[in-house]
Amino acid sequence: MNADHRILPVPEGLAGERVDAAMARLFGLSRTRAADLIAAGHVELDGTAVAKSDRVLPGAILDVTIPVEADPLEVVPEIVEGIKIIHDDDSIVVIDKPVGVAVHPSPGWTGQTVVGHLAGAGFRIATSGASERQGIVQRLDVGTSGVMVICKSERAYSVLKNAFRNRTVDKTYHALVQGHPDPLEGTVDAPIGRHPKADYKFAVMADGRHSVTHYETLEAHRFASLLQIHLETGRTHQIRVHMAALKHPCVGDLTYGADPTLARRCGLERQWLHAVRLGFEHPESGEYVEYESTYPDDLAHALEVIRDAH
């Protein structure tokens, strides 16, 4: 355990104070944090455990262990099973992201990350952007797999950041959605904002951000359709929100109203959504490059179940 260990005599000025109040004054902690440390057994007075309401005497030895709380945004280098490197050069690294891996650390996420993997694998990433998001010009949800690009040079970062902002990057996804969208191909142009009742999800909202999704049907089966989707904008959960708004949520996407029975039949524990292709002008050479990712096992299996369902 990383901890800060401090031993101090109680000064005259704090004589008769409660232990939690004295600790708050001596160590600059909040009273609550001091009380938590006492409750966790991290505090001794003259070698014996104390209660937070005990009073301190001048000259008594206060022995406190303060565990260092992990920074939720710290990038922890850690090799992640299943991240495949599709392409690597001096400016960019293109990866195939597996499901269950976040792109970068964020508050509340304690799992593995793409930036942690790249740090663990010895990749030098561009330092532009917030420290936990360095080199990141696009994101995929934790529950979405597929191809994504990370920038290694500062120049690549600024060029590609602009390309994503100006929507000159070709982002192609495949999604298996419930039912059959009508028409079979079309465009969803509907603004997306935070869901008014659940802050972990999004919804079509009148005052949301401009969001455009183009789709076409590749295969239509009894229970579901395989769509090819081109994103014009790149909002969080965009495809999932737009498909749910059409009443054709991604198979397995229980957050956005998918049928749990169908998800179980398909053996899915996440939304059927995969980033299959990414195309852009290479930030150094300027030539158009395109990278692809095949379906991972769980999605391939689910698609077979749907194809075989009569």
TrEMBL record:
UniProt keyword Isomerase present: yes
Domain of life: Bacteria
Stretches of the chain forming a coiled coil according to its record: none
Sorted UniProt keywords: Isomerase, RNA-binding
PANTHER family given in the database record: MITOCHONDRIAL RNA PSEUDOURIDINE SYNTHASE, RIBOSOMAL LARGE SUBUNIT PSEUDOURIDINE SYNTHASE D
Family of the protein in this entry: Belongs to the pseudouridine synthase RluA family.
Protein name (database record): Pseudouridine synthase
